[in-house]
Amino acid sequence: MIRLASLFWLALVCATGFATFKVKYAVQDIEEELNRVRKQTVIEHQEIHLLRAEWTTLNQPERLADLNRRILSLAAMAPKQLQHTVEDVPLRPIPAPPDTLIAAAPVVPAAPAVPEPAEPRLAASEAPPARPEKPLAAIAAALMPVKPAAAAQLAVNGAQNPAPEKPVAATPATVKSAPVKPAATVQLAKTGTSRTAPSIDRLFAAIAEGR
Amino acid sequence: MLAAQRLDDNPCRPRHFKPPPPCAPVVGDERANQLLETCRTRLLAAAALFAFVFLVVVLRLTEIVLLAGGAAESHIGRLPQAAPPPPARADITDRNGALLATMLPKPSLFANSKALLAAGQDPEEAAVKLAAVLPEKPAAEIRAKLVSGKSFVYLKRSLTPRQQYAINRLGIPGLDFTPEERRFYPYGDLAAHVVGYCGIDNEGLAGVERGLDGAMKGRSEPLELSLDARVQFILREELTRVVGEFGAKGAAGIIMDVQTGEIIAMVSLPDFDPNRPGGTDPADKTPVEVSERIFNKITLGDYEMGSVFKIFNTAMALDSGVTSLTKGYDASHPIHIGRFTIEDYHGKHRWLSVPEIFMYSSNIGSAHMAVDAGAERQRAFLARLGLLKQVPIELDEVARPHYPAVWRPVNVMTIAYGHGIAVSPLHLITAVSAIVNGGVLHPPTLRKLPPGAVPPGEQVMSPKTSEQMRKLMRLVVEFGTAKLAAAPGYVVGGKTGTAEKNSGGRYLEKKLLSSFIGAFPIQEPRYAILTLVDEPHGTKESHGYATAGWTVAPATSRIIQRIAPILGVAPVDEASPAITRALTIESMQGKRIESY
């Protein structure tokens, strides 16, 4: 009986001793890590300080004014450009008739769902459908799954400027080539279809050029 | 027997000592049994206590090892933050946190020639490489130091971080850096006179660096000044333009928050680059004396300010009740007193009302007004406005005003229009701020006050006089000498002053000091502005005039239009009924105001 109890306590003492050492070393490791991080923090602080001084030097009003003169040509603000409250700001004049490209946009979202040739806009395309074709909107959407709105816009462009010059290489369902259109259209088709990583900025640039 | 038993009971009994066997079992000895029982109980209690404490330790260990820490994590937040040691001097920033002065590591490069030669480095090659990094040091000079055989020789003091990096990259043995810190002013000459500069041992020698030297040492958070670097830049740019346009010797300007006394901008031209205060700009064609560059016209300059003093004269006369806006004085004849003759620059030669005297800047009318009030009142009023003593400010470079020891009648007359008394521009703007803000004098300060805080001030005149003065100052800009200072939307009010500089007791007609002092928006002033130009020369555009109305007034207009949006002063419709009502002088209503 006494033996058993002694064994139990002995085992417990061993386990405790082991655990204590384990904890001690773990703490030592963490402390080393902490010291390293603190040293690094101080270095980073000093670097930030240096960068801040450099940033301020680069932001010398004199230099900014000079840069403005050479690059931006921004004028000083006139008193009439400043208003007390939102109510003082005059309403924007009624906008000019919107661009046809943009105006057509709301029609599109349905397009990807519509199965091919029945799509009226595409029917106007001069391209003879050699193979079963996906609607352009669907292709565009497949190209850019993340930016459906932009894709729709592209699809509209594609639909309006009948067909792209080149087949869409990136998708399995390709569009047959069609007679070459005016330069702007070609440009649009190129930027719109022939790249693998679509960028919204380039897309907008393309739309702007297409106008 | 008894002895044996005693031995056996003794816990300290040596082991080898065997007690003689008991002759008979000791039973029935009540006392012994009781003792044994007590011992056993105590032993048990002690064991239980130890077991309990041990179990607590075991439990805690289990918690830490097996249950991942428990509450131990919470200590991390309480550890002190790692931060670099505080700099030798605190940073100085403007009111928006833009760095005006900071400490930068500027290591010095030294060579251990012995080590370099011992490492087998070709000194010729090393010198050429170093000369490429340090363009201002010729290779021959570096080479001479490298082969000198000394174990410590400076190659270059104050390296830039880029140079240090480049030298490290060269990998030349025997070169090392000494860690040093230097004061650096990222904005250069922008606020040179306010910030000041430091010496080689980073001790403040001028400006705030000197005035607040004690506060700067061993402080880790930056010292915030009341300056606004953007406003400072605009003020400096426009004043530089004035100096160039009118071929002036110098210029100065100051902008103050009239409600708090905070100085928003302070410029004195010509100025210097605090990064090298003694150096001159090699691009400058007509180099100016260093002493003149370092001289702060705003705080250290003592000038006879001329007509702007009529603000104080009129305020004094109105506040003491000697005169009122409806009264007036005969200004048709010059005053002869002693060897002096007091004349008007733009004489109307008739009776003038008080607003007209102020608007047309009549010396004769002002002199009559001052005589009416008397020397005692005049002196007391100027003293109340702080014009007869040094201005309290965080700078060491402050001027002591010059005024007559004995206030004679002729002094009374000349002081009325700002001659015979010399004060610094800082005096002037502090006093004018008090006049327009409702009559409360705040000491000027260069340190930023917490937003919304209004420091205690001293009521030096009645709010009613202050209101009348605002109206009069508006009149000057609307119809008087300062028409060109008007900034549409910002309702400027002010007063011009063109004084002939006094040199050795004589007034020099061609050497003018033209100044404008004003406040905006004058119906509810927030900022006071003072601009002055030293020895301007008339141009074709100014029709040959070098007076304040043609030199600094247009510049002030441009400055106000540019800084008001930055300072958050919203433009208003100057013709709106609320504003015209606030600024109309009843006695002037319906009168035809002659153009000036």
Query: In this structure, how is the largest beta sheet of chain A organized?
Result: none
Q: For the record, give the distance between the C-alpha atoms at the N and C termini of chain B, rounded to a whole number.
A: 138 Å
Largest sheet of chain B, in brief, is:
5 strands, antiparallel
If you consult CATH, what is the topology of one domain in chain B? Beta-lactamase
Number of strands of chain A: 0
Low-confidence parts of chain B lasting 5 or more residues at pLDDT below 50? none
Describe it.
The complex is a heterodimer of chains A (211) and B (596). Chain A is an all-alpha fold and 211 residues long. Chain A has two domains: 2-72; 100-210, no CATH class. Chain A is built from eight helices and no strands. The longest helix of chain A is centred in the N-terminal third of the chain and has 57 residues, at 2-58. Chain A is elongated, with a radius of gyration of 34 Å. Mean pLDDT of chain A is 64; it is low at 107-198. With 596 residues, chain B is an alpha+beta fold. Chain B has a domain at 232-588: 3-Layer(aba) Sandwich (Beta-lactamase). Chain B has 21 helices and 18 strands. Chain B has helices spanning 2-9, 30-66, 113-118, 123-133, 139-146, 161-170, 192-195, 207-211, 213-216, 229-245, 290-294, 297-300, 310-319, 354-359, 363-373, 375-384, 409-416, 425-436, 463-479, 552-567, 577-583; strands spanning 92-93, 99-105, 108-111, 153-156, 175-178, 181-184, 223-224, 250-257, 263-269, 328-330, 335-337, 340-342, 351-353, 440-441, 458-459, 493-503, 506-520, 527-534. The longest helix of chain B has 37 residues, at 30-66. Chain B starts with a helix and ends in a 13-residue tail after the last helix. The mean pLDDT of chain B is 86. Classes of the chains: A mainly alpha (211), B alpha+beta (596). The interface between A and B is large, with 35 and 37 residues.
